[in-house]
Automatic annotation (TrEMBL):
Cofactor: heme
Keywords tagged on the record: Endoplasmic reticulum, Heme, Iron, Membrane, Metal-binding, Monooxygenase, Oxidoreductase
This protein's name: Cytochrome P450 4C1
Lineage, uppermost ranks: Eukaryota, Metazoa, Ecdysozoa, Arthropoda, Chelicerata
Listed GO CC annotations: endoplasmic reticulum membrane
PROSITE patterns attached to this UniProt entry: CYTOCHROME_P450 (PS00086)
Localization (cell): Endoplasmic reticulum membrane
Family label: Belongs to the cytochrome P450 family.
Entry's Gene Ontology molecular function annotations: heme binding; iron ion binding; monooxygenase activity; oxidoreductase activity, acting on paired donors, with incorporation or reduction of molecular oxygen
Amino acid sequence: MGVNLDAQAGQNSEYATAIHELADAFLHRVLQPWLYPDFFFKWTSYGRKFNANIRLVKELTKKILKEKKLDMLMRSKNGVNELFPNEGLGERKKRKAFLELLLEHHLKDPSFTEEDVRQEVDMFMFAGHDTTAMSLSWTLYCLGQNPEIQQRVQEELDDIFGDEIDRNIVREDLTRLKYLECVIKETLRLYPSAPFIARECEDSFTVLDHVVPAGSLCMILISELHQDPESFPEPEKFVPERFLPENSVGRHPYAYVPFSAGPRNCIGQKFAMIEEKIVLANILKKFRVTSLDPKDKVITKPNLTTKNAQPLRLRFEQRIL
């Protein structure tokens, strides 16, 4: 978004805490139908905390939007930069943060209001940070459980970076990290960031001689779909090679949907893959990871994302190159 919250340094950490508590309150409500009416939910401890967190998230987003918008207008007024530069003319323009693009559209077209911008930002922040964080954690855990696969990933990294382990990762590097991409995809098969999605049926349809009427809310359990042995033989095994191009031929396009599918699929899936490749590559270039707990001791808990009930215990050892 182009804004530094310094959350890892302890600044604005209440935002991240609020997001986690909102997810917990949502699941608490989903599992107790008598709390569906707002009248009942708002009087519970979860409901009061939920509404307080909603206010906190909205207020922080509004504050950032106001400051960013004022900064853009002042820079334009002082001639530091054009508010709406002509793309493609002269020197290549610096790529803008997503928030700046949204605010530019708002300033060009006031019908796209600040509230519209806030909703877009909240959606990206809510859907984009915890999902990626959990995927990174599970990928490191899986690699720590499978040292031979981790070795192959590090050989790929060594081929690309050689002795330049401290240099920045560029676009060309990302396209060459093919086996690491397979590892990330296999992790998302076993531990999808979003374990379920929901769709409301506009038309009735029939499944196994059972008619699902229009208006029904259908829950698609991605975590179960990815365990189908017809699409993924020995589904409990961690086998990144499943996602090599030659091994993906003939697989049903909806057999693997970690980012959902269709017109409502995840808008940030390409960005998420780039983000994960960069973080994992920078870690695995320098460190070897070992998982300290076997798979049967690592329990996931129901939530909006696939979370571990207890901390994932990992050991990092510096690689000797």
